[in-house]
Amino acid sequence: MINVTKCFLPPMEEYIELLKTSWDKAWITNNGPLAQELEKQLAAHLGAKHVLFCSNGTIVLQMILKAYGITGEVITTPFSYVATTNVLLWENCKPIFVDIEPDSFCMDATKIEAAITEKTEAILATHVFGYPCPIEQIEAIGKKHNLKIIYDGAHGFDAFYKNKQLLTCGDVSTCSFHATKLFHTVEGGCIVTDNDELAAKLKLYRSFGHVGDDYFDMGINGKNSEFHAAMGICNLRHVPAIKESRKQISELYDYYLKGLPLQRPVAVATTIYNYAYYPIVFPTEQLLLKTTKALLKEEICPRRYFYPSLNQLPFLKDSQPCPVSEDISSRVLCLPLYHDLAPAAVQKICSIVKAEIDNAEINSIPSLIL
Ligand SMILES: *Cc1c(COP(=O)(O)O)cnc(C)c1O
């Protein structure tokens, strides 16, 4: 079976080598030497002052909302993984959805100001699929209206924007190190910031808000373990190779899908993409469903990232219409993409996609892009 993604695993000996050090010390969690080492390496890799290694890419967003004391309306994107909205609801904030750009699939900065009220406290934007959201515009709006800006960079690891790591753009970004992500620690996530005060607060929050017998603030358990850190240290060594193979596979997809009426996200200029995902947008949802069925028959499992549009989640009390996101969500499919996906598999996937498109009534398909 070919899944939409497959986790990278380092050579087992590399991992065991590191684990031995934990065994020897019998120190397996609570900010141990491997977690500290991983943070140091990540800070150097990203070019960031502070990287806080945490238990996942969801709790880090919750910790930041708490640290900023955000309790009101938060402007956010309807096109992201459900965690981006859930953290707001979980922290009793009110998500206000602003529609996305039809090119980058990221939040449309030109629509943000119309959504700002006296209750707006923050903007939570996602660099969706690893494509940078309109950072300068969002930063300018944040400054003008005195809003906190948080970037959900779960997909943004090792993408570059204007010659710096995307995750270092803005005051604070998060990342997810879940097993399905480009760089992973099995489960895990991080906070990236250059702000000393914020980092100190978040460090406290991460371990229950106390240091020894000194209790400073309400905290939570956002720590991660030495075993997870060891996986991160191993995997970080392989990131260049992982990215290179994903790049080659993505280019192979580009080659085989060339000329088909499929839309692909477009990165803003000066982006160096990380090849985190390979989304394609079909001319119609019907064609997406038919193609998915044909792929599944061959034991190829693509994923509807991201569907439904988050403003249409069934448990929202109220919401805002986002026609662009609703439209893209209904037609977007992520094709399998991982480090050792065979070129023959890519060719097969593309031939199935092409056959389904050729079978469809071509005349009903709007002329298109790729
Ligand atoms: C994966 C993901 C998260 C959550 O990360 P976890 O580590 O799984 O908790 C948050 N936001 C986005 C956009 C994601 O894709």
Structural overview:
Strands 2-10-9-6-5-3-4 form a 7-stranded mixed β-sheet, with helices on both faces. The protein has a 3-stranded antiparallel β-sheet with strand order 8-7-13, with no helix packed on it. With 370 residues, it is an alpha/beta fold. The relative contact order is 0.17. The protein is 38% helix and 15% strand. It contains 10 helices and 16 strands. Helix 1 (12-25) packs antiparallel against helix 7 (226-257), helix 7 crosses helix 10 (343-359) and helix 8 (285-297) packs across helix 10. The protein binds pyridoxal-5'-phosphate (PLP). The site of pyridoxal-5'-phosphate (PLP) has 14 residues, from helix 4.
Features of this protein?
binds pyridoxal-5'-phosphate; single chain; 38% helix; alpha/beta; 16 strands; seven-stranded mixed beta sheet
In short:
The protein is α/β, with parallel strands linked by helices. The chain contains ten helices and 16 strands.
Secondary structure category: alpha/beta
Proportion of beta-strand residues:
5-15%
Largest sheet: 7 strands, mixed
The helix content is 25-40%
SSE arrangement, N to C: EHHEHEHEEHEEEEEHEEHEEHEHEH
Given the structure, what is the number of helices? Answer: 10
Q: Give start-end ranges of low-pLDDT stretches.
A: none
Number of separate strands:
16
Bound molecules: pyridoxal-5'-phosphate
Mean of pLDDT? 96
Shape, principal axes of CA atoms = globular
Q: Distance N terminus to C terminus?
A: 28 Å
Rg result: 21 Å
Question: Which strand order does the major sheet show?
Answer: 2-10-9-6-5-3-4
